[in-house]
């Protein structure tokens, strides 16, 4: 694995690699010569805003690998990772008031466009599958935009239409919080699925040609949206619930519905969604912090944050986080492919959205070839790897575009 990862990073001359690794490199190059590798979810714009403030508009984004606060993404590593197109998440906090969410979403969209303008030799803003293919043929990375939370439309379909006009390609129906019209997978439910307005949102996404993204939503919302939509859906960054029973992941029953719908589940790299052991460790870690210091009434070290930090460090030394690996991410991809079919799986890394903790072997955007190599070792054909890399999501985009053309005469709500 180390040899393959090093090869993916481009630091070992091809002649020094074992023959099987050279063959894998040649196969990957052949696959990606005609199929752009498309990642369904990367939070780079949001983390640039959070860390860099106003400097994000002018800073050099070519190589951020030596920054003290580690980034998973920069231009140099995107090129080494052979990325063909990227859905950039324009996430904002769901805790913000609705109108502030709208303002910050517009700023995030503006940032993506600014990056495309500043680095026009690398990036180009795209909205359709044909534009993705054209950009790739011209040596550019296609920039797609994903709005990661239904709260970001502030309950207003006119806002949704405005995002579409600005180039947004998908809307994630919820983020981590239940909103007025849809339940989140990681919050207490209030609606038992989608409300009537939530169903209107799905219908309007279909009319606009925007993808319905079911990452983050409760299973009832998944089922409701799949029953309502006329276009294939995506899960921009989710895993297989059979592999790790996290409510953010997708059950086998829903995978069957995705197959019937024609959609695609793009597998996430976040350790808490990848590994059941890591998920349990994370819950224990959070419980320990609460046990030590939970003002104003609870905690063994209540009111003594320095002592609580020292005691937590001792707990952490005795309970290190479980190792999460590239192979475990491949397990999720394999499972989705087995249950839903190879036509219904993709990659949705969540890079720069989960901090520095990532599976070993998948630390940044340069490592996609290592993941493809792992799946090759598991017997995946070149045709199926091409579907995973980008063919499936391009098909979904084309079908959503077709549905939008059919619905064009429909009067918007």
Describe the protein:
The protein has 413 residues and is α/β, with parallel strands linked by helices. It has 16 helices and nine strands. The chain has helices spanning 2-8, 19-34, 44-52, 75-80, 98-118, 129-137, 157-165, 196-208, 219-228, 252-261, 271-274, 276-292, 305-318, 326-340, 368-377, 382-407, and strands at 37-42, 83-89, 123-125, 141-147, 168-172, 211-213, 234-238, 264-267, 345-347. The strands form two sheets. Strands 1, 2, 3, 4, 5 and 6 form a six-stranded parallel beta sheet that branches. The radius of gyration is 21 Å and the shape is globular.
Helix and strand topology:
Elements lengths: L1 H7 L10 H16 L2 E6 L1 H9 L22 H6 L2 E7 L8 H21 L4 E3 L3 H9 L3 E7 L9 H9 L2 E5 L23 H13 L2 E3 L5 H10 L5 E5 L13 H10 L2 E4 L3 H4 L1 H17 L12 H14 L7 H15 L4 E3 L20 H10 L4 H26 L6
Helix pairs in contact: 1-15, 2-15, 2-16, 7-8, 9-10, 12-13, 14-15
SSE string, helices as H and strands as E: HHEHHEHEHEHEHEHEHEHHHHEHH
State Rg. 21 Å
Structural class: alpha/beta
Question: Helicity, in percent?
Answer: 40-55%
- Terminal Cα span: 53 Å
Report the biggest beta sheet as strand number plus sense, adding barrel if it closes.
6 strands, parallel
Q: Which residue ranges are poorly predicted, with pLDDT under 50 across at least 5 consecutive positions?
A: 1-15
| Average residue pLDDT | 94
Measured by DSSP, the beta-strand proportion falls in 5-15%
Compute the number of helices.
Answer: 16
Assembly type: single chain
The strand count comes to: 9
User: Which descriptor suits the 3D outline?
Assistant: globular
């Amino acid at each position: 694995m180390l040899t393959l990862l090093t090869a993916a990073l481009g630091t070992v001359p091809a002649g020094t690699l074992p023959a099987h690794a050279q063959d894998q490199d040649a196969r990957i190059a052949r696959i990606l010569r005609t199929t752009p590798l498309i990642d369904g979810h990367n939070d780079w714009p949001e983390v640039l805003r959070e860390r860099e403030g106003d400097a994000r508009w002018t800073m050099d984004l070519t190589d951020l690998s030596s920054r003290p606060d580690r980034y998973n993404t920069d231009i140099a590593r995107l090129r080494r990772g052979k990325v063909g197109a990227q859905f950039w998440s324009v996430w904002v906090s769901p805790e913000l008031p609705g109108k502030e969410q709208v303002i910050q979403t517009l700023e995030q969209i503006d940032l993506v466009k600014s990056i495309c303008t500043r680095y026009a030799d690398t990036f180009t803003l795209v909205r359709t599958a044909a534009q993705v293919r054209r950009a790739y043929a011209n040596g550019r990375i296609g920039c797609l935009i994903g709005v990661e939370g239904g709260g970001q439309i502030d309950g207003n379909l006119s806002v949704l239409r405005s995002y579409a006009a600005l180039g947004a390609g998908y809307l994630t129906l919820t983020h981590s919080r239940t909103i007025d019209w849809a339940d989140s997978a990681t919050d207490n439910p209030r609606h038992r699925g989608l409300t009537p307005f939530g169903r209107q949102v799905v219908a309007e996404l279909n009319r606009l040609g925007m993808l319905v993204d079911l990452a983050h939503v409760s299973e009832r919302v998944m089922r409701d949206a799949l029953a309502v939509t006329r276009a294939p859906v995506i899960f921009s960054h989710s895993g297989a619930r059979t592999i790790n029973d996290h409510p953010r992941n997708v059950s086998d029953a829903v995978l069957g519905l995705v197959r019937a719908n024609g959609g695609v589940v793009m597998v996430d790299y976040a350790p808490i969604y990848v590994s059941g052991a890591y998920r349990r460790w994370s819950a224990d870690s959070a419980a320990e912090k609460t046990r030590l210091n939970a003002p104003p009434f609870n905690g063994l070290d209540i009111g003594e944050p320095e002592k609580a930090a020292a005691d937590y460090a001792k707990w952490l030394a005795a309970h290190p986080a479980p190792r999460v690996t590239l192979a475990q991410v491949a397990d999720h991809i394999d499972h989705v492919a087995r249950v839903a079919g190879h036509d219904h799986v993709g990659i949705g890394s969540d890079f720069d959205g989960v901090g520095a903790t990532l599976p070993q072997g998948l630390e940044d955007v340069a490592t996609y070839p290592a993941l493809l190599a792992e799946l090759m070792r598991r017997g995946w054909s070149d045709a199926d790897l091409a579907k995973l890399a980008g063919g499936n999501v391009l098909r979904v985009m084309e079908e959503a575009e077709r549905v939008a053309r059919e619905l064009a005469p429909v009067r918007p709500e």
